Amino acid sequence: MPATILDGQKIAADIKAEIAEEVKSLAASGLRPGLAAVLVGNDPASEVYVRSKVKASEALNIYSEKITPPESVTTEEMLALVADLNRRDDIDGILIQLPLPKQVDAKKVLLAVSPEKDVDGFHPMNVGNLSTQRPGLVACTPLGCMEILKRSNIPIAGANAVVIGRSDIVGKPVAMLLLNANATVTVCHSKTRDLPAVCRTADIVIAAIGRAGMVTRDFIKPGATVIDVGMNRVTDPAEFKRFFAGNAKREQDFAAKGSVLMGDVHPEVAEVAGAITPVPGGVGPLTIAMLMSNTVKAAKLRRGVRMKSTARGNE
Ligand code: NDP
After folding, report:
1. pTM over the 0.85 mark
2. Is 120 a catalytic residue?
3. What is the per-residue pLDDT for 1?
4. Residue nearest atom 17 of ligand 1, based on CA coordinates
5. Is 29-115 in CATH node 3.90.1010.10?
6. Which residue is closest in CA terms to ligand 1's atom 1?
7. How far is the CA of 165 from the centre of ligand 1 (A)?
8. Distance in Å, CA 113 to ligand 1 centroid
9. What whole-number distance in Å separates Cα of residue 107 and Cα of residue 170?
10. Where do the domains of the chain lie?
11. If you placed Cys at 92, which of 151, 174, 187, 298 could pair as Cys (CB 3.0 to 4.6 Å)?
């Protein structure tokens, strides 16, 4: 039986509808969450990401502000900008779109963001809060993976979960969230021995590698759940054919655009997995929804507003 497709668009839409309600009830008490997005220079991919984040904020009636320092900005100027945003009461979330230009010390700038306004969840204080199960802000993509699992009724407690990838942005925080939810977690990386055998022990596989179609059917225990975080652009016609020959929709897209977006998971995995997220339309939409969720959460935490018991994330 082919895998159930876990529809990230639908789950993200449900979450956004809940957030819109929360924003409405906050407005009744005179509070409007605010998000500042700092976009340095003219990187086209970063511009697309920031545009979609600002658009999502507007749709939910979250105040948003785009700040666009020039490509030549210095570390000191970025630090001054962040200090100003940290001070402003109308800003609850600060998002520094990465990558920053080479001359800017990105670590220093990210560290300067107040942990209370760190809606990306990258600050060491928030990383520590996550690992010690204290309230705080958690990275958006890992939160999105958890929402997909929970809202699709995939059992997590007691499950064997294998995370492929150990980045600070995805692999490590998603492993910690799974552990906090009582999964038995294995974290794999480029030095892991016999990766397919390790993955075959998993009830849940999270692929966060950045290699198109690397996870093949021999990695997957029949019936396992597969969350594909990877976002890879395939431009080589031979590579495209290897993954998508005979897929009319993909062939049309490739002919029109000269490329397709695909995850780290080979399409053949859908024949063995129990459930799987598509790319696009899986984890991606959740990342933005969870950024919105974090902005509202930051606004509430900072002002001591009680969180709803049904709230998302590690509350
Ligand atoms: P990184 O490059 O920071 O990390 C990749 C990880 O994969 C590393 O830990 C690396 O191991 C591991 N890895 C690389 N090659 C192999 C291999 N052959 N076998 C086993 N492990 C391997 O990437 P990110 O975590 O930032 O992103 C991962 C993917 O997720 C990317 O495709 C990215 O575009 C996507 N992404 C998607 C988001 C979304 O919203 N959907 C958001 C963020 C990322 P090692 O540490 O040993 O080098």
Report:
1. yes
2. yes
3. 83
4. 190
5. no
6. 167
7. 5
8. 24
9. 17
10. 29-115, 140-285
11. 298
| Per-residue pLDDT tens digits for 97-146 | 999 999 999 999 999 999 999 999 999 999 999 999 999 999 999 999 99
Query: For 138-186, how does the pLDDT look when each residue is reduced to its tens digit (9 = 90+)?
Result: 999 999 999 999 999 999 999 999 999 999 999 999 999 999 999 999 9
For ligand 1, atom 42, the nearest C-alpha belongs to 141
Position in ligand 1 atom list of the atom nearest CA 164? 21
As a whole number of angstroms, the distance between CA 289 and CA 149 comes to: 15
- CB of 209 within 6 A of ligand 1: the answer is yes
Catalytic residue among 16, 92, 97, 117: 97
Give the dihedral of Cα atoms 244, 249, 250, 253; nearest 10 deg. Answer: 160
Question: Is residue 308 pLDDT above 80, yes or no?
Answer: no
CB distance 193 to ligand 1 below 6 Å: no
Spatial separation of the C-alpha atoms in residues 118 and 35, rounded to whole Å:
10
Q: How far is the CA of 309 from the centre of ligand 1 (A)?
A: 33
